Amino acid sequence: MFTNLEHLGLAVQDLEAATTLYTALLGLAPYKRETVESEGVDTVFFQVGGSKIELLGGTTPDSAITKFVAKKGEGIHHVAFEVDDIRAEMQRLRAEGFTLLNEEPKRGADNKLVCFVHPKSAHGVLVELCQSIKE
């Protein structure tokens, strides 16, 4: 079950410049910076009320974020929703006819298991499912 809007992912060309801009815009500092090597991305998270903003900067020329910015420019990359049971949601969404980009959940940023729904299945929006990892 979807429990809340977890975060908006924003693809940016220059992560440091975007971090400075969003710090000024939101009037608060990011609470976390993290590299996700497997995705070729550096992330910066801001907590805004009950939701988050995730800035994403590509770290390699072939990363999905670098390619996204080159093709579409900076902006909203994905919308992420928190789920209670990511595997059950993946199964439910497949049964509903959605195309998932992941066969199994993978470890993402901010201590989450993640899976993505293909934008063609969601009116052009890349949707991320997130489940907190309990360690």
From TrEMBL:
Is the Isomerase keyword given for this protein?
yes
Looking up PANTHER family in the UniProt record yields: METHYLMALONYL-COA EPIMERASE, METHYLMALONYL-COA EPIMERASE, MITOCHONDRIAL
Q: What class does this enzyme belong to in the EC scheme?
A: isomerase
Q: Which Gene Ontology BP terms does the record give?
A: L-methylmalonyl-CoA metabolic process
UniProt similarity note: Belongs to the methylmalonyl-CoA epimerase family.
E.C. code: 5.1.99.1
Q: Which residues form the signal peptide?
A: none
Query: What are the protein's GO molecular function terms?
Result: metal ion binding; methylmalonyl-CoA epimerase activity
Q: Which UniProt keywords apply?
A: Isomerase, Metal-binding
Return the InterPro entries for the record. Glyas_Bleomycin-R_OHBP_Dase, MeMalonyl-CoA_epimerase, MMCE/EMCE_epimerase, VOC_core
Q: List the protein's name.
A: Methylmalonyl-CoA epimerase
Name the encoding gene, please.
mce
Q: Which Gene3D superfamilies match?
A: 2,3-Dihydroxybiphenyl 1,2-Dioxygenase, domain 1
Does the entry feature the keyword Isomerase, yes or no?
yes
Write down the species: Hymenobacter gummosus
Q: Where does the VOC domain lie?
A: 4-132
